[in-house]
Amino acid sequence: MRKAKNQALKTLEVIDITNRGILELALAILYIGEVTKKKVETSMGSSDPLILKFFLAMMKTLYDFDLKKIKCQLNLRADQNPKEMKRFWSKELSVPIDNFGYVNLDKRTVGSKTYPHYKGVCHVLCGNVAIQRKLIYLSEMFCKKTIEKYLGTWRSG
After folding, report:
1. Could you tell me if residue 129 is inside a domain?
2. CA 21, CA 136: separation in Å to the nearest integer?
3. Four-CA torsion 37, 68, 88, 86, nearest 10 degrees
4. Does residue 36 have a pLDDT over 90?
5. For all residues of the chain together, what is the average pLDDT?
6. Any idea which of 24-38, 89-103, 137-151 has the lowest mean pLDDT?
7. What DSSP string describes 24-92?
8. pLDDT in tens, 88-99
9. In principle, which of 42, 62, 113, 115 could form an S-S bond with 132, CB 3.0–4.6 Å?
10. CA distances from 79 to 36, 92, 108, 109 (A)
11. What's 114's DSSP letter?
Protein backbone atom coordinates (compact mmCIF):
# COMPACT_ATOMS: atom_id res chain seq x y z
CA MET A 1 0.00 0.00 0.00
CA ARG A 2 2.80 2.42 0.82
CA LYS A 3 4.34 1.90 -2.64
CA ALA A 4 1.02 2.66 -4.36
CA LYS A 5 0.53 5.77 -2.25
CA ASN A 6 4.04 7.02 -3.06
CA GLN A 7 3.45 6.41 -6.77
CA ALA A 8 0.17 8.35 -6.56
CA LEU A 9 1.94 11.24 -4.80
CA LYS A 10 4.59 11.34 -7.56
CA THR A 11 1.88 11.54 -10.22
CA LEU A 12 0.11 14.34 -8.34
CA GLU A 13 3.36 16.31 -8.08
CA VAL A 14 3.39 16.84 -11.87
CA ILE A 15 -0.31 17.73 -12.19
CA ASP A 16 -1.29 21.37 -11.93
CA ILE A 17 -4.54 21.24 -9.96
CA THR A 18 -5.02 24.96 -10.55
CA ASN A 19 -5.35 24.33 -14.30
CA ARG A 20 -9.02 24.76 -15.24
CA GLY A 21 -8.75 22.29 -18.13
CA ILE A 22 -7.37 19.56 -15.88
CA LEU A 23 -10.10 20.17 -13.29
CA GLU A 24 -12.85 20.13 -15.90
CA LEU A 25 -11.50 16.97 -17.49
CA ALA A 26 -11.27 15.25 -14.09
CA LEU A 27 -14.87 16.22 -13.36
CA ALA A 28 -16.03 15.07 -16.81
CA ILE A 29 -14.37 11.65 -16.47
CA LEU A 30 -15.81 11.19 -12.99
CA TYR A 31 -19.19 12.41 -14.20
CA ILE A 32 -19.45 9.97 -17.10
CA GLY A 33 -18.69 7.08 -14.75
CA GLU A 34 -20.85 8.08 -11.79
CA VAL A 35 -24.14 9.43 -13.15
CA THR A 36 -27.35 8.30 -14.73
CA LYS A 37 -27.58 10.06 -18.06
CA LYS A 38 -31.34 9.48 -18.35
CA LYS A 39 -32.19 12.64 -16.42
CA VAL A 40 -31.75 15.95 -18.15
CA GLU A 41 -29.90 17.78 -15.38
CA THR A 42 -26.46 18.01 -13.87
CA SER A 43 -26.50 15.67 -10.90
CA MET A 44 -24.41 13.01 -9.23
CA GLY A 45 -25.13 10.26 -6.77
CA SER A 46 -22.67 8.38 -4.59
CA SER A 47 -22.29 6.65 -1.27
CA ASP A 48 -18.85 8.26 -0.95
CA PRO A 49 -18.89 11.78 0.54
CA LEU A 50 -15.46 12.51 -1.02
CA ILE A 51 -16.84 12.06 -4.54
CA LEU A 52 -19.77 14.39 -3.84
CA LYS A 53 -17.53 16.98 -2.15
CA PHE A 54 -15.31 17.00 -5.24
CA PHE A 55 -18.38 17.35 -7.47
CA LEU A 56 -19.68 20.31 -5.46
CA ALA A 57 -16.25 21.97 -5.29
CA MET A 58 -15.88 21.70 -9.08
CA MET A 59 -19.44 22.95 -9.74
CA LYS A 60 -18.64 26.05 -7.69
CA THR A 61 -15.08 26.53 -8.99
CA LEU A 62 -15.64 25.84 -12.69
CA TYR A 63 -19.20 27.04 -13.23
CA ASP A 64 -19.73 29.47 -10.34
CA PHE A 65 -22.75 27.38 -9.36
CA ASP A 66 -24.65 28.72 -6.35
CA LEU A 67 -24.42 25.85 -3.85
CA LYS A 68 -27.50 27.18 -2.05
CA LYS A 69 -29.50 25.94 -5.07
CA ILE A 70 -28.37 22.34 -4.56
CA LYS A 71 -31.12 19.82 -3.90
CA CYS A 72 -30.42 16.40 -2.43
CA GLN A 73 -32.25 13.08 -2.41
CA LEU A 74 -31.35 9.93 -0.51
CA ASN A 75 -31.63 6.25 -1.33
CA LEU A 76 -31.41 4.32 1.92
CA ARG A 77 -31.72 0.78 3.13
CA ALA A 78 -34.91 -0.11 5.00
CA ASP A 79 -33.30 -0.05 8.47
CA GLN A 80 -31.72 3.40 8.09
CA ASN A 81 -33.22 6.45 9.79
CA PRO A 82 -33.99 9.16 7.19
CA LYS A 83 -33.58 12.03 9.68
CA GLU A 84 -30.18 10.74 10.85
CA MET A 85 -29.00 10.21 7.29
CA LYS A 86 -30.14 13.70 6.24
CA ARG A 87 -28.15 15.14 9.16
CA PHE A 88 -25.10 13.05 8.20
CA TRP A 89 -25.13 14.11 4.53
CA SER A 90 -26.00 17.72 5.35
CA LYS A 91 -22.97 17.96 7.64
CA GLU A 92 -20.64 16.08 5.27
CA LEU A 93 -21.53 18.19 2.24
CA SER A 94 -22.19 21.50 4.03
CA VAL A 95 -25.62 21.63 2.41
CA PRO A 96 -28.53 22.94 4.50
CA ILE A 97 -30.80 20.17 5.74
CA ASP A 98 -33.76 22.02 4.18
CA ASN A 99 -32.24 21.23 0.76
CA PHE A 100 -32.88 17.51 1.34
CA GLY A 101 -36.15 16.26 -0.06
CA TYR A 102 -37.14 12.84 -1.31
CA VAL A 103 -35.95 9.78 0.61
CA ASN A 104 -36.37 6.32 -0.87
CA LEU A 105 -36.23 3.35 1.51
CA ASP A 106 -35.31 0.19 -0.36
CA LYS A 107 -37.96 -2.41 0.52
CA ARG A 108 -35.75 -5.18 -0.84
CA THR A 109 -33.46 -4.69 2.18
CA VAL A 110 -36.13 -5.30 4.85
CA GLY A 111 -34.80 -7.79 7.40
CA SER A 112 -31.12 -7.34 6.55
CA LYS A 113 -28.81 -5.26 8.71
CA THR A 114 -26.86 -2.35 7.25
CA TYR A 115 -23.17 -1.95 8.02
CA PRO A 116 -22.67 1.03 10.38
CA HIS A 117 -20.30 2.78 7.93
CA TYR A 118 -22.83 2.73 5.06
CA LYS A 119 -24.86 5.94 4.90
CA GLY A 120 -26.88 5.26 1.76
CA VAL A 121 -26.58 7.01 -1.57
CA CYS A 122 -26.94 10.78 -1.74
CA HIS A 123 -27.98 12.32 -5.05
CA VAL A 124 -26.93 15.94 -5.51
CA LEU A 125 -29.11 17.73 -8.05
CA CYS A 126 -27.94 20.96 -9.68
CA GLY A 127 -30.31 21.30 -12.63
CA ASN A 128 -28.54 23.06 -15.52
CA VAL A 129 -28.57 20.70 -18.49
CA ALA A 130 -25.91 22.77 -20.32
CA ILE A 131 -23.22 21.71 -17.82
CA GLN A 132 -24.33 18.08 -18.05
CA ARG A 133 -24.08 18.12 -21.85
CA LYS A 134 -20.63 19.73 -21.80
CA LEU A 135 -19.29 17.19 -19.30
CA ILE A 136 -20.65 14.25 -21.28
CA TYR A 137 -19.26 15.54 -24.58
CA LEU A 138 -15.89 16.37 -23.01
CA SER A 139 -15.47 12.92 -21.47
CA GLU A 140 -16.61 11.09 -24.62
CA MET A 141 -14.37 13.15 -26.92
CA PHE A 142 -11.39 12.77 -24.58
CA CYS A 143 -11.85 9.00 -24.40
CA LYS A 144 -12.20 8.67 -28.20
CA LYS A 145 -9.18 10.90 -28.86
CA THR A 146 -7.09 8.94 -26.35
CA ILE A 147 -8.17 5.59 -27.81
CA GLU A 148 -7.25 6.78 -31.31
CA LYS A 149 -3.83 7.90 -30.12
CA TYR A 150 -2.98 4.72 -28.25
CA LEU A 151 -4.91 2.05 -30.17
CA GLY A 152 -4.80 3.65 -33.60
CA THR A 153 -8.51 3.71 -34.46
CA TRP A 154 -11.83 4.41 -32.87
CA ARG A 155 -14.61 2.02 -33.79
CA SER A 156 -18.10 2.76 -32.51
CA GLY A 157 -20.28 -0.17 -31.46
Report:
1. yes
2. 15
3. -70
4. no
5. 92
6. 24-38
7. HHHHHHHHHHHS-TTSSS-EEEES-HHHHHHHHHHHHHHH---GGG-EEEEEEETTS-HHHHHHHHHHH
8. 999 999 999 999
9. 42
10. 25, 21, 11, 8
11. P
Name the β-bridge partners of 123: 45, 73
Residue 114 and residue 80 in contact, taking contact as beta carbons nearer than 8 Å: yes
Note whether 56 and 66 are within 8 A (CB).
no
Helix (H) or strand (E) holding 135: helix 129-151
Domain assignment present for 124: yes
Rounded to the nearest angstrom, the gap between the alpha carbon of residue 80 and the centroid of all alpha carbons in its chain is 22
Kindly compute the dihedral angle of the four CA atoms of residues 94, 96, 102, 103, in this order, to the nearest 10 degrees: 60
Domain span at 108: 17-139
d(CA 136, CA 65): 18
Asked, for residue 7, whether it belongs to a domain, the answer is no
What was the pLDDT predicted at 42? 92
pLDDT of residue 157: 54
